[in-house]
Amino acid sequence: MVPQSKHLVYLAVFLLIVIILFPFPAQAQNFSVSPMEIKIDNLSPGGKAQFNLTIRNKEDVNHVFALTTYNPGESERREGRAEFPDDSWISFSSRKVSVEANSEAKTKVTVAIPANQKWAGKDWEIWLRVCPEEREFLVVNYYIRLLVSTGGEVEAGTNVGVVIGILVGILLAACVVYYFYFRRKAKPKHPEAV
Amino acid sequence: MKLGIITILSAIILALISCLPAMAQDSGNITITMSGAMEFSINLTPANWSFGTVSPNTDNKTDLMQFNLTVNPTSNCNVNTFITADDAVCVYDSTYVWTLSSDGNNGERIYVLWFRVEEYPNTYIQITKEQTQFRSLSMTPTESVNFGLKLLTPQPDFGADPGYFSVGDATMQTHVTISAVAA
Q1: ipTM for the complex?
Q2: Taking CB atoms and an 8 Å cutoff, what residues of chain A touch B67?
Q3: Is there a contact between A162 and B22 if contact means CB atoms under 8 Å apart?
Q4: Which residues of A touch B172 (CB under 8 A)?
Q5: Given B32, B49, B72, which is nearest A137 (Cβ)?
Q6: What's the topology of domain A26-150?
Q7: Which option is the CATH number for B42-182: 2.60.40, 3.90.550, 1.20.1330, 3.30.479?
């Protein structure tokens, strides 16, 4: 019984030495993003589109990631795509995303094109950059391609208020007509004075 | 009375019919297509590296196989890769900075960085603050590349204040960033 336990102790010490002598090389921020590419078609000037980005933290410690935009050079863009005119048209639900160890977090991205006919019928490209806040010597950054094509017509904006206003106006007009025309017509005439 | 109610209802229905196209305009036909929903990642090893003690105006090379970049096997498309670096800042005194050279020449407080990949072991490509292509071709999932770095330290700054090359013990820190985008 005793020799067996001795062997176990020797094995444990041997394994410990191997682990100490051959440490696993650390990776530079092990994380991933998805999707890789987002294509928005027929987004009319005056309209907006929203989508989610997912960041997965594959490490055993929490990390904070910064989200920014980047305008790539012509050679780096897809064929036929022009530079995105104004990166302020792109907003993130949060510019910094904290992702717990071995978990994922989503952030909402909104693309809003101003209501101007000159932005109709365009094909643009911009990249969304995801980079870790804590940086070591080697740093990994990810870019997500965002391809935006605008529609041909300027969107009129939110018309619900106008529609409700018209309906209320028509209802009021109908009430007035009803009151002054039908009610008065139905009213009994005053009895003539005796 | 009945005629009045019918008139009001007719007016509302007419108004609704005329407004329907205006309401429909809000919901448009925007198409959002997302590619690569599975994964998108690269691995860089090792994360940290030290050139050790360096002297002014000298070349310091890492081994060609010192660093490795691998496209994660679960990535479902090819990736284009880029490399950039930052100015080097003294860990103990953030006012003491080595500027990263943009023309390949070093100077007082100007340092130069290059990289080389294992396919072209004799070709060093300069790293600047502007993005440079890391691989000329896109990388496929599971593809791996080893690479090394070369550092040319600044000219001596013995006369400057502070001139850390004269007193030594200044630990300079910089970052080399490798970026990936769907090809």
Answers
A1: 0.77
A2: 138
A3: yes
A4: none
A5: B49
A6: Immunoglobulin-like (2.60.40)
A7: 2.60.40
